[in-house]
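FYI - complex with pyridoxal-5'-phosphate, inputs then prediction.
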Amino acid sequence: MAFLRFLPQPLNSSLSTDFLHHHHRLPYPQQQQQHRLNFAVVKTTALSDSHPSRTLLDSKTQVFDAVPLLSSSQAYERMKAFRENIKGKQQYLAMYSSIFGGITTDPAVMIIPMDDHMVHRGHGVFDTAAIMDGYLYELDQHLDRFLNSASRSKIDLPFDRESIRRILIQTVSASKCRNGSLRYWLSAGPGDFNLSPSGCHQSVLYAIVIQDMSPAAGAVKSRGVKVITSSIPIKHPKFAITKSVNYLPNVLSKMEAEEAGAFAGIWLDDEGFVAEGPNMNVAFVTKEKELIMPHFDKILSGCTAKRVLTLAERLIEKGKLRGIRKKNVTVEEGKKADEMMLLGSGVLVCPVVQWDEKIFGDGKPGDITEDLLNLIVEDMKSSPSIRTSVLY
Ligand SMILES: Cc1ncc(COP(=O)(O)O)c(C=O)c1O
């Protein structure tokens, strides 16, 4: 039997034991020094030299990591420092949680309990809405989908629809954000670490306001992006039509695309028809100038895609488009099209200039795609029927 005991030891100790000067990997150098831990390694051993685990034990003494026990104020300070040291492109301006029943603007406490079933079981749904010039774009359309997703996921609402809507608008107001995005979740809630939500106290609403500081990304997208056919299995329609937090296939599809130097992967459905991207819908403009888009029965019904279908009517009036149709789109049909585009709250209307080996329009964004992008940006800025004003 062998024992390793770690005894806190003063630095000037004269004991003839090895010292491990071990510090935790902290992102802030000035604190690394303070948190340097000094432990004496005392080996009390009855282990014979021939014992097979001897080497293992010896090597363990080199890497043993003494984890500090933190007070709540220390944990808070570390969270605060962690947040302050992340120089990300996104800033979190305000968060609402129905657990604390209010809004905070302190990123250090924008947290979710570990036993929330959304965290450890993926039992949660979410949605978004863009904030443009102090207005929320298509909030009600996104809310409808949010509540449908919750109902399909058997998550009861903690409040009625009107109260949820009011909370979301107030969260944006508290954030003072005029251009950014609002994201919100309904979770089965905290309670335990079981699979069944029967031990959850109450479903929870969370919301966060995010300001994206990377305007350059938009410029890259407007020049057109490359996509590839995704090899990651598509979600079963039952799950694909629900905006749940189970985005592992979507993440893997995006990573696969990035590894191939592309922007996104395009899924095909179980019959081989074009489906959607990992967080966007897809549409094409055929040689006959028809705007075609896959049906929404096996994929997420995108708010942007639906709005584009309506706005595209104006291009028919101008004689630029001959028709608009939702239909099953084969890969062959898609690759023969004049234009391909991605549609979603994140990308708005994004031209695709290459899908696998197929190059669209000599590698330049198509005219109809550009017209649709202009129409949606104009709609976001000025369409009264679809914007919700925020009182700051
Ligand atoms: C899988 C998937 N498809 C499509 C979309 C596009 O939907 P929307 O236009 O509502 O953002 C999203 C957006 O989040 C998505 O996650």
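The CA atoms of residues 78 and 146 lie 34 Å apart. The first strand starts at residue 2 and ends at 8.
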